[in-house]
Amino acid sequence: MRRPLRRLLLAVAGPAVAVVVAVVVIQTGSHHPSAIEKTARTRAAQAREVARRAGLPVEVQDLLARAAGAVGHRFTVTYRTGDGTTATLIQLPPSKRVDEASGTGADQIVRTLIVNGDGSFSCARRVGRWSCERATDAPVTVGAFTPDEIKATVERLSSQRDAYRFDVTHRRVAGAEATCLVSSPRHPQPNAPTGTLCISNEGAPLLVDGAAGRVEATAYKPSARAAALELPAPVR
Fold first, then answer.
1. Least CB-packed of 28, 131, 215, 216 within 10 Å?
2. Residue 119 lies in a domain
3. What is the mean pLDDT of residues 95-99?
4. Does the pTM of the predicted model rise above 0.85?
5. Which domain holds residue 78?
6. Strand partners, 196
């Protein structure tokens, strides 16, 4: 699969918020729901502790913990990337699906990654017809942050505390309530970069805006259809 589907959101929200939001992250492990829930709780606790030790405000600790625990929640979110590609993530733990659509009308191509109880599958729709095959990569799991990304983000935030301020705000993104981490220079200068990361109540990334560009959700709901996790065509 093309890299945009393998790593949908890879953005830096300003020099003070080095946020890497990975929608599809390779990781082996159990697919039992209780294991997913345990993973979500563990990641959230780890994120909170790392942020606490770094001396970040409690509000920032809470936001990072929620983002890290997104792996355990169900939701459906659609993004439009800078090149006009539309990507949709459907997560119903422990199953998940990511669709990437490019082009319009009869020329539209959809590339899909589905992980369900039967394994990992790569599907594509061309000229209105679906085809599927077993994915050759390792099993995947979905989460807003991996532990390494949390650590890197916290280290960057901590190193910039003297030069930047971090505000946690609330707004609506894609029709959903979002909690946002906004970084801005303590001493504003012309063209000084700022950064914003917004997540849903379930921890799903809704907006990443910064020096590397902007990716924003266009639709969101805290639910997922089980039927969407079924393969659209037999495996070849």
1. 28
2. no
3. 92
4. no
5. 3-100+139-225
6. 182, 209
* Residue 108 counted as domain residue: no
Encoded amino acid at 157, one letter: L
Which positions ≥6 away from 78 have C-beta within 8 Å? 86, 87, 88, 89, 174, 217, 218, 219, 220
**CB contact at 8 A, 180 and 169:** yes
Residue 159 lies in a domain: yes
pLDDT at position 23: 43
In contact, 216 and 79? CB cutoff 8 Å: yes
Angstrom distance (rounded) from CA 173 to CA 229: 25
- Which two tokens mark 141? 């799991």
End-to-end, the C-alpha distance of the chain in Å comes to 16
Q: What type of residue sits at position 180?
A: C
pLDDT recorded at residue 75? 96
CA dihedral of residues 48, 57, 170, 99 (deg, nearest 10): -30
Amino acid at 8: L
- Per the structure, the count of domains in the chain is 1
pLDDT of residue 235: 96
pLDDT tens by residue, 181-202: 999 898 877 777 788 999 999 9
List, in sequence order, every beta strand (DSSP E) within 24-71.
Answer: 25-26
